[in-house]
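Subject: Beta-xylosidase

B.,
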Amino acid sequence: MNQMNTLRLGALLLLGATTQSNNALAQQDTVAIQVDLSTTKGPMRPIWAMFGYDEPNYTYMKDGKKLLTEISKLSKVPVYVRAHSLLVTGDGKAALKWGSTNAYTEDAKGNPVYDWTIIDKIFDTYIERGMKPIAQIGFMPKALSTKPEPYQHNWKPGDKYFSIEGGWAYPPNDYKKFAALVYEWVKHSVARYGKKEVESWYWELWNEPDIDYWKGTVEEYIKMYDYAADAVKRALPTAKIGGPEVTGPQSPRAAKFLRKFLDHIVNGTNAVTGKKGAPLDLITFHAKGYPRLVDSVIRMNMGTQLRDIDSGFAIVASYPTLKHLPIIIGESDPEGCAACSEDVYPSNAYRNGTMYSSYTAASFARKYDLVAAHGVNLAGAVTWAFEFEDQPWFRGFRDLASNGVDKPVLNVFRMFGLMEGDLAKVSGQLEYDYRRVRDSSVRRKADINALAAIAKNSATVMVWNYHDDNKMVPASPVNVAIRGLPAGAVLLHHYRVDADHSNAYEAWKKIGSPQQPTPEQVTMLERAGQLQMLGSPEWVHVAKGTTTVRMMLPRQGVSLLQFTW
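Prediction pasted inline below.
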């Protein structure tokens, strides 16, 4: 054998040994997930079908209406929308963390002047799309503020986050006038949209009154709530009203505020009626994560967000007469400031790509677990992300679309929209359950797990490969064994969000990251922003009620397996 042949043989032997080694490693590292569709855990409520934003005037702008149309089509159930500043005095022009409707002013003699033009424009946009408002009673009109000047803040990215103070955040100078405003708003809504429609809405008072969004005391907030709730119920006795929308309840300050509010609901003296307690139809609080840069790598902190939820649920569950009430997590996000862009806050660079989408899949799945652990009634969790009109492409806001082009995270919500029925049992030798993520976040191995649902003629399994550290590593082999499918052939659609699927951001980068894309490029990006399949639909043979789907799932990737028969 000559030297050349010897080298070739050695190379082949080495290649064979390497292949065997890689195969063995793949076999060893394969994550096995078992789904038992015959074991269910109650209905899979569409808790994800709620969205919100600071700037209400974006609602009826070009890209705002386009995105709301897409959001409205995500689900069979109506999607709820929550927006700030619905009673703020101003000209209706949007700015970052600002909006106005001019619903309330006063004439020269101090008499109320109501103008519902802009509020109607906002709510009409929702109703036309089959959506429903979480109607936020706030913030304070200038004519009713105890400290009207300066009234408007002028916040921009880079400013201190809480430098949003102004006359809009102060208590009313006349609680009866404030109550009359609320009464007239509800009454007008019933006249415009009908009693049955308004009965399906949620009304709430204010936002984050435990921090700088409220310049009054806890007691003044509670007094204002009594007046607002009384006004809502006088206008429409069957309307649903709640609060207090505090920040994360793992904070002692927020927890104390929430407990004082709930104590008043149960045993307090009502400021309007003089009787015990106040009407309450839903309980609201917020939950946020805490991303940071660690050695120039983005590190999320899902555990922080889950601990907020855990603390809030525990507080609600401690009130026997209130435990059954619907809970809405009024803002439920990886961190706090949607308008804090990536170019100013580098730790927010997760937002454009697949880290945001995989975080969303994994965190919503754990909300179902926390509900079961506490036995509470979670109606929904609001994703505080919408769009920012006329901003640079993919600037890195916490939004669902950039200049009318959908981000990967929106496709995870499209996946959720395909899931229905009852939650099904998921098991396996998995690294994380909700307790471990809550207590220590996702620090060592990746969180590769699944959420499954079974309906009459379909089953769905969402699988994610999430890690708090945004390091790109090789894809992981995952085997998903599904038991409980009908015998015979079922149709499988395999949807995917990763760098190559359902990802307009990566497509935008591939064409040079243009800030002025051509119409043809925009059309291509719009297509890339839609939910895409990994391959074609295929008929899968089910033997003895079981089939196994094998996949390579990239880090921060999400798959949805949809079986229909």
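The longest strand covers residues 31-43.

T.
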